Amino acid sequence: MNILISGGSGFLGSAFSKEIQKRYQTADKELHITWLTRDSSQEHPNDIEMMTYDQLSKTDSTFDVIFNLAGAGIADSRWSDERKEQLLASRIKPTESILEFIARTSIKPKLLVSGSAIGWYGTQGDKPLTESSSFETDFSHQLCEQWEQLALTATDYGVPVVIVRTGVVIHPEGGMVGKLLTPFKMGVGGQLGNGQQIMSWISREDWVGAALFIIEQHLAGYTQSQATQDNLLKTATENDTPAFVYNLTSPNPVNNHTFTKTLGTWLHRPTFFTLPNFLLKLMFGEMSTLLIDGQKVLPQALQDAGYEFQQPTLQQALAEQKS
Length: 323
Known about the structure:
Shape: globular
Family: Belongs to the NAD(P)-dependent epimerase/dehydratase family. SDR39U1 subfamily.
Pfam family, one: Epimerase
Domain NAD-dependent epimerase/dehydratase: 3-219
Low-confidence stretches: none
Order of helices and strands: EHEEHEHEEHEEHEEEHEEHEHHEHH
Number of strands: 15
CATH class: Alpha Beta
Domain DUF1731: 276-320
Structural class: alpha/beta
Protein name: TIGR01777 family protein
């Protein structure tokens, strides 16, 4: 299999690349990975090829799967107007380049998997949300919606599309846990707001496992007739090319209070501190909604398709992490 990955060197893309290499080597299958990058001199493993966006616009290479993960971290800095534009551009421009490649190449990819986030659903408290749920309009929704709708235009060229809406990814090497390790180890970690806001999370191992499961399933011929009403995006295309959506979250979301206590127990550190809502709003502005307002997003389509979680509880996810 030839696979092209935008964002391949990132927190998720690098873990995905390592795992698919390991599985294909074990199964004695041929695999060729190319990372799509803006900087061809970027450090990378010797067995992974690098391709710039300029090279993509000219290449006659073919790919079985394109995995579109590029995008600046939504929680990396305060949401100024300039930052919002950067967040959108970092997702739209790489996706446009991929779509331009798909449009001109004579041998189309068998599948486009494009990233998104559970922010698509907007702030909805503790209401259970599956792939068929509606949304509340806020910045997170608008950002995800524009990214998803652009990716879905690949169906116009006969390329099936899978949208993966990712929750909070748990692993010490990065993501939320990576950022919290230092304050928690210093004994100043604690609850955010009233602690009742729901956090929909997934371990990085299960995120990678689910992504591979989805790709293998669809390459094996997963069809529109097999899809549940939850994950079939019927409005994505006017032709017969299917499009699907999956929530990449654990089936066991937790509130912030439970997350805080579980992380403190894992690190053997106290969790006495509380950051009140007004202080979070003062510190982070509009972006504080990611910390204060919860989402209870469930992986209905993934479970219906038969994926079995390896780390379904937060305690398991933290206990089994490999730092």
